[in-house]
Write a structure and sequence with these properties.
mainly alpha; 12 helices; 61% helix; flat
Length: 241
């Protein structure tokens, strides 16, 4: 090809349009942020059970080996997921006079974030957090408890117990919603259907269940969530310094 730029340009313009090779679009580099985005997309659209390194790689249009330059394993993705969600949690300035309300508000935020992504709270179970956002929220919860006069070891164990409850609660809610979407899941009963079944039980075998069927099936929205955290906090308050 001629070294003269003008001749090269003329020759290029003389080529039929079909023969002009289109420049291949450059792929976006794989980053931790993009891996986390893809993982959340999988959970949001397919549920947590579908989350694998291979599935995340497919969303990114690459192979699993490309991800291992940025993550260690699936547990690492779990840590990134919870960290991303916890980054949205707004922490209050600890107030000794309002520590119960503040604690409920923080855990309500976490619950609602979990419920946006079916089953994602499972990623928080049996995991030692290393993500700085997860640690930030843990620090904030501990600060609220200490401001409320809770003894440090009790506060530390309470953080663990309440976080475990919130994760389990959100997981159960996600599983119920998931099952309701499937066909032939008639055993997933509504509140009214469950009440009917309890009241229809033989009184000689199930006297208490039949008598208190309304109480056993009561509660709407997240009333039981608030109730359970309230019980835990009542016990904490009795042990406050």
């Amino acid at each position: 090809m001629s070294a003269d730029p003008r001749l090269r340009r003329a020759a290029r313009h003389a080529l039929p349009a079909a023969e002009v090779a289109a420049a291949a679009p450059r792929k976006k580099p794989i980053t931790v942020e993009r891996i986390t985005d893809a993982a959340l997309e999988v959970v949001a659209t397919e549920g947590y059970d579908a989350l694998t390194i291979r599935r995340v790689a497919a969303v990114l249009g690459t192979g699993p080996s490309s991800l291992y330059a940025h993550i260690v394993n699936k547990d690492d993705i779990d840590d990134l997921l919870i960290g991303r969600l916890y980054a949205e949690v707004v922490l209050p300035e600890p107030d000794p006079a309002a520590w119960r309300a503040q604690l409920l508000e923080v855990y309500t935020q976490i619950r609602d974030l979990y419920l946006q992504y079916p089953g994602v709270s499972r990623a928080a179970l049996a995991m030692v957090p290393t993500n700085l956002e997860t640690l930030r929220v843990g620090e904030g919860i501990l600060a609220i408890l200490l401001a409320g006069g809770i003894e440090p070891r009790t506060a530390a164990w309470a953080c663990d117990a309440m976080s475990l409850y919130v994760s389990a609660y959100a997981l159960e809610q996600s599983l119920v919603e998931q099952r309701r979407k499937h066909r032939n899941q008639e055993w997933v009963l509504s509140q009214e259907e469950l009440l009917d079944r309890f009241t229809a039980l033989p009184a000689e075998k199930f006297p208490l269940t039949k008598r208190h069927a309304a109480e056993l099936t009561s509660g709407s929205g997240h009333e039981r969530f608030d109730f359970t955290l309230g019980l835990l906090m009542n016990d904490l308050q009795s042990s406050a310094r």
